[in-house]
Amino acid sequence: MRFSTRTRYGLRFLLRLAAQPPGSLLQLGQVAREERISPGYLEQIVRALKPLGILKAVRGTGGGYALARPASEINMEDVFLHLEGEIAPVRCLTTKKPCTHEGQCSTRAFWQALDRHMREFLRHCTLQEMSEQCNNTPGAASARAGGQRPIPGGSSYVELH
Amino acid sequence: MRFSTRTRYGLRFLLRLAAQPPGSLLQLGQVAREERISPGYLEQIVRALKPLGILKAVRGTGGGYALARPASEINMEDVFLHLEGEIAPVRCLTTKKPCTHEGQCSTRAFWQALDRHMREFLRHCTLQEMSEQCNNTPGAASARAGGQRPIPGGSSYVELH
DNA sequence: ACAAATCCTAGCAAAGTGCTATGTTTTCTG
DNA sequence: CAGAAAACATAGCACTTTGCTAGGATTTGT
Known about the structure:
2 copies of one chain form a homodimer.
Chain A: H1 5-19, H2 28-35, H3 39-49, E1 55-58, E2 64-67, H4 76-84, H5 108-123, H6 127-133, H7 138-145
Antiparallel strand pairs in A: 1-2
The first copy, chain A, binds a DNA duplex through helix 3.
């Protein structure tokens, strides 16, 4: 029942954007360095987030990303849906037909209730709230990050929250 | 974020037990037939449930399973913990050290809140409630199940809720 | 003794996850 | 206008997890 790195890394990216002064751009490469996530992988993740429409991207030199909407209007249900693909705890909740089991499915009601519960929690949780909740200073880590030497031969990335 | 078949099939097994008249035994093979789950696989799942102590097993001819405690005293948090291994949405919530990230982790508080939320829902959901919630008649399906001919060569099991 | 049930271990095919590699396109800068 | 820096895009691959099978050992009723 673990969430994938896609969701976790995507969240971190969004939190960086939310912590940014409005109007400014944040580059993907910089976030990848600071969060110690593979840049290529983070690109994929950010791309999955694009259809939601919460990102504003500027291409070319000096480009980067910014939030297209205020953080208070971005809820976690939407974000999770795009990053994780789906939230439902069992597959047949999302694929129309109520599974080919004869008669009524004994556990369906339970899974539906659990699904509703999760979604409600996520829907009422905004990026704004998350950003306020975490009282870390993004600048502190990045200041030291410059001194990091990449270990040649072999990925140095470690799974994070 | 899907739950595995272990948890889903395990739940179905427990629901069968809960629907059984108290004092009687239910055989694993029979449940497997009626629920169309591989008997061998269901055995593994039931075994994972044993350490919880909610099952009473009788070996030998005429043996079977029964609930060792009333269904009203069996909550889903315990059941899920044993079937799924862990519930936590991210790994570092269960492995002591708060991940090697420099400074405070920006998303940790959120994952903890989500974890608490899920657990609370599951803890307050008892097998009794689930059993009452599902108004299907387990006997109806099993009556017809006798006529099933197993398809030779190739598993005929299909994933269920 | 035999059969019927629960117990137990190892292994394996398929799917999913996490990431790398290799580009293409856009845009700013010298 | 050349080049660099950024976002955009696709394919593939090693590793892990999942879902199940095979084959047996042990216990107990008839």
